[in-house]
């Protein structure tokens, strides 16, 4: 079976063709905001401007591999959750391709796709999943026909909270990877609010607290510098105001805050994951979503799994952030289970929850 899948819920427009075993082709075009974070309308304009080139690229690479369009069995697309304007561009393209090729349409839940690609590309069979990305942060596991959500963020996603904090520190989007880089230079511990309630967590307060500490430190340093300059002028310092070669104290503080941010946010995520493991009695953990690229998060999860005797799985990095392959592969599972959509039912759903999906493809092969 061969399925074409298109992803474009937010920043990454990506189309791929897969079979049961592997990715056959994948073509991606990434929206990079000039300033600030993701603007939904700009992202949609990006997707509209490049969808032709992305799909065209997939078809011509297929041809080079000796696979004709006719061999595609179904056309899958990311139905949600995501940014409405972006979802509509991708859905329109998918409907059109499905009509032209006369092949069924499959509407895939983006969060479920992050999970299924991980199960596909690792040895995990029935894991507790920590899914942490830009807009979403959830702990899920398969139970009685759906991916049940055991805990989740009650405000914003971990990735978006990192991006927001990083922006306030003057760092470019996306901030997650930069926070990781700075954290490695940390020298001192700082306390930040740890907010887990029951099985759920909050990340907005953490972002605000980190931003506030950063600003307070900056204004403190500015005051000190002003005083120093005055003193230097008075004593005709022979350095003539040259930098003394030390690390900028603002950068040092930023590094400390970045590490504290990671330690706090990841400890919260690991705690809920651990409790879901205990609750479900499962023995595997799978990390999914863009924030899963973070090596400190992997280290912390791995340690928790070792202590509990559970197995820890992380797919290759290309399958962690948004990618066309995850939509194509989940589409393939759904198509084989007969889970396709008519044109009339194919509306997008910006708030589509993972636990509203009937996992039709596991019904025949229950775990
Ligand atoms: P969603 O699945 O919620 O729709 P998304 O579509 O925004 O998420 P993903 O690619 O799954 O996209 O995740 C992107 C997020 O991952 C961004 O917020 C980014 O900062 C974060 N991220 C990427 N690399 C790292 C890293 N090394 N450490 C921490 N966060 C990271
Ligand atoms: Fe995503």
Automatic annotation (TrEMBL):
Binds 1 Fe(2+) ion per subunit. Residues 1-361 are annotated as: Kae1. GO terms for cellular component: cytoplasm; EKC/KEOPS complex. In the C-terminal section; belongs to the protein kinase superfamily. Tyr protein kinase family. BUD32 subfamily. In the N-terminal section; belongs to the KAE1 / TsaD family. The keyword Phosphoprotein does not apply. Its cofactor is Fe(2+). Residues 220-239 have a biased composition (Low complexity). GO terms for molecular function: ATP binding; iron ion binding; metalloendopeptidase activity; protein serine/threonine kinase activity; protein serine/threonine/tyrosine kinase activity; tRNA N(6)-L-threonylcarbamoyladenine synthase activity; zinc ion binding. The lineage of its organism: Archaea, Methanobacteriati, Methanobacteriota, Stenosarchaea group, Methanomicrobia. Coiled coil: none annotated. L-threonylcarbamoyladenylate binds at residues 131-135, 163, 176, 180, 294. Component of the KEOPS complex that consists of Kae1, Bud32, Cgi121 and Pcc1; the whole complex dimerizes. Keywords: Acyltransferase, ATP-binding, Cytoplasm, Iron, Kinase, Metal-binding, Multifunctional enzyme, Nucleotide-binding, Serine/threonine-protein kinase, Transferase, tRNA processing. It comes from the Archaea. It is an enzyme of class 2 (transferase). One of its GO terms (biological process) is tRNA threonylcarbamoyladenosine modification. Its EC number is 2.3.1.234, 2.7.11.1. It is found in: Cytoplasm. It catalyses: L-seryl-[protein] + ATP = O-phospho-L-seryl-[protein] + ADP + H(+); L-threonylcarbamoyladenylate + adenosine(37) in tRNA = N(6)-L-threonylcarbamoyladenosine(37) in tRNA + AMP + H(+); L-threonyl-[protein] + ATP = O-phospho-L-threonyl-[protein] + ADP + H(+). Required for the formation of a threonylcarbamoyl group on adenosine at position 37 (t(6)A37) in tRNAs that read codons beginning with adenine. Is a component of the KEOPS complex that is probably involved in the transfer of the threonylcarbamoyl moiety of threonylcarbamoyl-AMP (TC-AMP) to the N6 group of A37. The Kae1 domain likely plays a direct catalytic role in this reaction. The Bud32 domain probably displays kinase activity that regulates Kae1 function. Residues 219-249 are annotated as: Disordered. Its main location: cytoplasm. The chain holds residues 4 to 370 of 607 of the full protein. It comes from Methanolapillus africanus. Residues 240-249 have a biased composition (Basic and acidic residues). Fe cation binds at residues 110, 114, 131, 322. This is Probable bifunctional tRNA threonylcarbamoyladenosine biosynthesis protein.
């Amino acid at each position: 079976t061969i399925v074409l899948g298109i992803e474009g819920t937010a920043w990454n427009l990506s189309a791929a063709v897969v079979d049961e075993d592997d990715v056959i082709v994948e073509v991606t075009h990434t929206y990079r905001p000039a300033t600030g974070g993701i603007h939904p309308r700009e992202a949609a304009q990006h997707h509209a401007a490049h969808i032709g080139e992305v799909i065209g690229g997939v078809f011509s690479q297929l041809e080079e591999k000796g696979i004709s369009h006719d061999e595609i069995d179904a056309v899958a697309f990311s139905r949600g959750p995501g940014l409405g304007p972006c979802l509509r561009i991708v859905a329109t393209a998918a409907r059109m391709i499905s009509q032209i090729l006369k092949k069924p349409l499959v509407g895939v839940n983006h969060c479920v796709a992050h999970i299924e690609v991980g199960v596909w590309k690792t040895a995990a069979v029935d894991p507790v999943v920590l899914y942490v990305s830009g807009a979403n942060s959830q702990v899920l596991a398969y139970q009685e026909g759906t991916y049940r959500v055991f805990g989740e963020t009650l405000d914003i996603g971990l990735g978006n909270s990192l991006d927001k904090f990083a922006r306030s520190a003057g760092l470019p989007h996306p901030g997650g990877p930069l926070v990781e880089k700075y954290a490695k230079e940390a020298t001192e511990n700082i306390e930040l609010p740890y907010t887990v309630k029951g099985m759920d967590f909050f990340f907005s307060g953490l972002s605000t607290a980190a931003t506030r500490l950063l600003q307070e430190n900056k204004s403190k340093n500015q005051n000190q510098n002003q005083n120093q300059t005055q003193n230097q002028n008075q004593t005709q310092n022979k350095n003539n105001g040259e930098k003394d070669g030390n690390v900028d104290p603002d950068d040092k503080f930023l590094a400390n805050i970045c590490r504290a941010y990671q330690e706090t946010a990841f400890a919260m995520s690991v705690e809920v994951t651990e409790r879901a493991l205990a609750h479900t009695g499962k023995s595997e953990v799978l990390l999914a979503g863009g924030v899963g690229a973070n090596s400190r998060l992997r280290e912390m999860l791995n340690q928790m799994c070792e202590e509990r005797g559970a197995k820890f799985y992380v797919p290759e990095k290309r399958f962690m952030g948004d990618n066309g392959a995850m939509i194509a592969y989940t589409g393939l599972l759904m198509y084989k289970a007969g889970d396709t959509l008519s044109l009339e039912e194919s509306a997008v759903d910006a708030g589509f929850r993972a636990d509203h999906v009937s996992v039709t493809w596991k019904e025949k092969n229950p775990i």
